[in-house]
Amino acid sequence: MDPKTRQTILLMGTDSNLGYLLGRFAEQSEYQLTVASENISIQDVTVASPVAIIFSSMGFLSRAEDFVVELASLDVPIIVCSSVTDEARARELGADYCLLHPITYEGFQGALSLVNTPKRA
């Protein structure tokens, strides 16, 4: 598939190692990963039209709580990289799915299965 026509997954956070790993997983799954700037707006997200938004950590998701509330108006799954012990808190903060550590390709694929499911049923 041509990279210009691949659907976008938006990564929120600045962890370059995680970005590399998720970028490889996205490429293997025929998506493109775009790392968002720290000052991204809801309008920027709308223009990017991502099929999913991944927060790199629970800390980043927690700090972006107001932004996550704004994202709720979009029908885009919100995924957070977290541990199994943080799943309940992640959902309280607005995440639809947790990509559990250690992050594997199979876990990434499971998270992407949300892309074809409406966020708010």
Task: Kindly summarize this structure in a few lines.
Helix content is 39%, strand content 20%. With 121 residues, the protein is of the alpha/beta class.
Which descriptors apply to this entry?
121 residues, Rossmann fold, 5-stranded parallel beta sheet, globular
Structural summary, described in words:
This protein is of the alpha/beta class. The protein has a single domain (3-116), classed as Response regulator (Rossmann fold), CATH 3.40.50. Helices cover 39% and strands 20% of the residues. It is built from six helices and five strands. It has helices at residues 16-28, 42-48, 58-63, 65-71, 87-92, 105-112; strands spanning 7-12, 31-35, 52-55, 78-82, 97-100. A five-stranded parallel sheet has the order 2-1-3-4-5. Strand 1, helix 1 and strand 2 (31-35) form a beta-alpha-beta unit. The longest helix is centred in the first third of the chain and has 13 residues, at 16-28. The mean pLDDT is 91.
Stretches where pLDDT is under 50 for at least 5 consecutive residues are none
**Morphology call:** globular
Give the SSE order as H and E letters. EHEHEHHEHEH
DSSP summary, beta strand count: 5
Query: Average pLDDT across residues?
Result: 91
- Look at the helices and sheets and give the structural class: alpha/beta
> Strands of the biggest beta sheet: in what spatial order?
2-1-3-4-5
Assigned CATH architecture:
3-Layer(aba) Sandwich
How helical, in percent, are the residues? 25-40%
Distance between the termini: 31 Å
CATH topology: Rossmann fold
Q: Specify the number of helices.
A: 6
Portion in strands: 15-25%
Assign the CATH class.
Alpha Beta
Radius of gyration: 13 Å
The major beta sheet can be summarized as: 5 strands, parallel
